[in-house]
Amino acid sequence: MKQKLLILCSLIAANFSFSQIKTKLVLNDGSVKTGYTFAMEASDLDKSSADLFKINLYNGKKKKKSSFKAFSKDEIKEMSVFNRKDQPVKLVFVKPTMEEFNQTKKDLGKFNKKLVLNYEDIWTPMIFVKAGQDADLLATFTYEDDFKIATRGNFYVTDSYTFFVVKKKNEDVAQLLGDINKTSGITVRIGKDKNLEKNAKVIFKDLCPKLVADINNGTFNVKYDPVKVFDYYTANCN
Q: Which residues form the signal peptide (predicted)?
C-alpha cells in the first residue's frame, strides 16, 4: 500500500516540503505561463478544493510572499519543470487508481475534515521518461532540491525512491512497473525480480507478447531494471 501511494506526486500526497520548482505551462489557447510550483504543505489544505488539486503557479520563489493562479488539467496543453541545470523536464498527467484516491482522501482528511475531494478533478503530474508506440514510461516527480538528471540513461529522477509506471496511450491510469532507490548517487535495489516480472507480464500481455514469452522461457532476464524492461518493449514490439 505504501509503495502504491508513493506513485502519487506531492500535489495529492501529504508531502510537506518547501522546495520551489521553476515551471512552465503551455495552455490550450497557445499562451505560455511561467512561475514556480511547490510541494503541498499543511497550510494549503485551507485552500478551496477547487484550487487545491489544480496546478498552482506562483509568481515568486517564496511561497508565502507570492500570489498564485490555479490552472486545471483541462487548460494545460504542456507542462515542464526545470532542474538545477535549468533543463526542461516534461510532465504528463495521469489519474490515480481508486485505491490511491481513497487512501489520499483518508490521509488528507486527518488534516482538514471539511476537505471535499472529487476523483474527476484529481490528476497527477509525472515525469515523461520514454515513449513507446502504444505506451509511455513515466516516473514519479517530487518537489526536491536534488531534482536532477540520473547518472545513467537519458531520463530524470531524484536521489530518492523513483517509481516507474507505464501509461498506455488510450488509458488515463498508469500501472506500476518497478521502483528504484538512489542514495547519494548509488542505486539501491529495493525490489525483487519476480515482482518486476509479474508487473511486466500484466502490463505487456497485449502490448508485447514476445516480452512475456521471453521472460517465461528465460531468454530475457529483467535483473530488476524497470527501464531495461521498457527498452526491451520498444526494441521488439514497436
A: 1-19
